[in-house]
Amino acid sequence: MLGSAALAWSAVTGVLSGGEGSAGPGPAPEWLDGAGGVAVVTALTWLLATRIAGRALIWAALALVLAAGSLVIGGRVLPTGAAVITCVVGGVYAVMVTVPAVTWWRAVREVLVSTLVAVVTAFAAVGFEPTVVPERFDLVALLLALGLVFTVVYRLGAGLHGLGRRGLIAVAIGLAVLVATLAYAELLRRYGAQAFVSTVLDFADATSERIGAFPRPLVVLLGIPALVWGTHLRARRRQGWWVCAFGVAATVPLATGLVAPDTSYAAAGLRAAYSLVLGLVVGYLVIRADLALTGPKGRRGRRAEEAGPHRPEPRRFAEL
């Protein structure tokens, strides 16, 4: 909370004291945003290690030393590395902090909790003032977060043998969407036909001019739906953790949404809001399709299942 307050103070004073002669308050101390970033990444590391039954004191102390050291030593590489690790830890913890959701509305609550953690992480990452190429930064953070979250979920989901046919299909679809989205965007940027690329970019620019931002396809098509369906599935089956793992495709892009030098708070906020709303709609459709194929028939049957016993999990801040 102290770290978040420091980051908020630094951001607000930076916006209000924008130019010369501004009537807003003076800028915050130069060290404030860095200190806030160190405090937040240390707290997130502690919370994540506690959640996955790790050695919280050791990992939090290591995060504190490395994050503070990157600011003291300075340069370009160390603060940027600290920002990457902040996005990775915050993105993974945003998934781990969720609890099972019996209904879609409760799944929406869990997505909002994850989004809040990702937003705090975004401000903490900016606090390190990284020097980035946005596409590379996003990709590195996402790949590291996927590696970490699947390592954790391997234990929570009872290993690969706990997937079952349904879980294998869900994981295969998630991997296909992830690879297709990332590969298509990269191929389009590097080798796509100029006329087609210009058409896509013109559409995105026109949409941004009209509504202020353009939603992120990976968040809409994979990240948010995975969180919605995964938390809903976890109320019934342990393999829901494997679906939730793909939630980092939403939490990490949200956490890296402010690192681009030309990104404003307003544009990043609108992009996140649009992605969140559209992703929740897609998640709702996925849940309805899942219940139609595998759940009880009729509204009365669904209500009886919602009221019945469900798979228990520890509380939100307890060890999993």
Characterize the structure shown.
By secondary structure, the chain is mostly helical. It has helices at residues 2-16, 32-51, 56-73, 77-96, 104-127, 134-156, 164-191, 194-211, 217-234, 240-244, 248-255, 265-294, 298-307. The longest helix has 30 residues, at 265-294.
- Radius of gyration, in Å, reads 20 Å
**How widely separated are the two ends?**
23 Å
Low-pLDDT segments: none
- What order do the helices and strands follow? HHHHHHHHHHHHH
Biggest beta-sheet profile: none
Helix fraction by DSSP (H/I, runs of at least 4): over 70%
List its traits:
single chain; about 325 residues; mainly alpha; 13 helices; globular
Brief description of this entry?
By secondary structure, the chain is mainly α.
Give the helices and strands, then pairings.
Elements: H1 2-16, H2 32-51, H3 56-73, H4 77-96, H5 104-127, H6 134-156, H7 164-191, H8 194-211, H9 217-234, H10 240-244, H11 248-255, H12 265-294, H13 298-307
